[in-house]
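Encode chain A's predicted structure.
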Amino acid sequence: MRRLNRKKTLNLMKELDAFPKVPESYVETSASGGTVSLIAFTTIAFLTIMEFMVYRDTWMKYEYEVDKDFTSKLRINIDITVAMRCQYVGADVLDLAETMVASADGLIYEPVPFELTPQQKELQRMLQLIQSRLQEEHSLQDVIFKSAFKGASTALPPREDNSLQSPDACRIHGHLYVNKVAGNFHITVGKAIPHPRGHAHLAALVSHESYNFSHRIDHLSFGELIPGIINPLDGTEKIASDHNQMFQYFITVVPTKLHTYKISAETHQFSVTERERVINHAAGSHGVSGIFMKYDISSLMVTVTEEHMPFWQFLVRLCGIIGGIFSTTGILHSFGRFVAEIIFCRFRLGSYRSTSVPLPDGHTSNHLPPITDNSTH
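Encoded structure for chain A:
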């Protein structure tokens, strides 16, 4: 009884078989079929390799939302060299709330030569080349995000020469914590002193002939300091054409959360526009000589997440490639054989010439003469 039930079950399963097997004796192979099969297998192998490369790669997903954090402090990372002696210049921040952040809260004034060593010039040239490529190809920013913490810092290496060149410039580097409101970081003549209506700089004791605001920005960033991230002003160098010259940078800071497979950090991206002009009160160009970086905080926050193709999606795409190629090549091969058979059949029919047979009444018959037993001898 059990054998009978098992046999019925097997018969039922055979009837449900959606993939019937054809005996090998009924299978006919051909040279054209082998050629098409070779092309299909080659295409499948090539597309499988390409799909595997896509599966291994990752991409950056950008999401935007309103930044609701207004109470935390914003960190400004600074490394700027000015072609003036340290006792002649002062740096500080003044925001819209009229809160003054002095440079003594986190900045260091270091006397250095303004001229770079050959090694430093080579690094600066490479950094400027990367900046120009970033402006042309924005997709390279995704590569920089992925390589965060793997790339080297953009700060110049220390000087290796032991020359007796006297320091004629001042390197101002360090970081400051400011309120998350629009503000103005500036470097100008004289040290800053508090003032009831803001602040002032003691510039009266500095001669105008010593003004030289040629500068080099080795690094400027906002938020957490992440090695390997290249910011828009890194590697910038400006040479002043006049003693009384103003350099202005208008910066828009965008809070950014970066989540990759290597790091998870909260930093800030920014865009910048530049302007420079000579201060000439007689010509109507008013202002104060110096370097002014006016920044504003965007109300939108960007979340950058590194994503990867799931394994199940890779399998689905791979099955689609294999099945699609087999189906497409099978259809094309069948259609080609069908067309070839039609052409060859017409060619064979045209090779037989019709024969005229005279009839007794004088007419002719275009039909082939009947085959008799005598005709076979």
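The chain has five helices and 17 strands.
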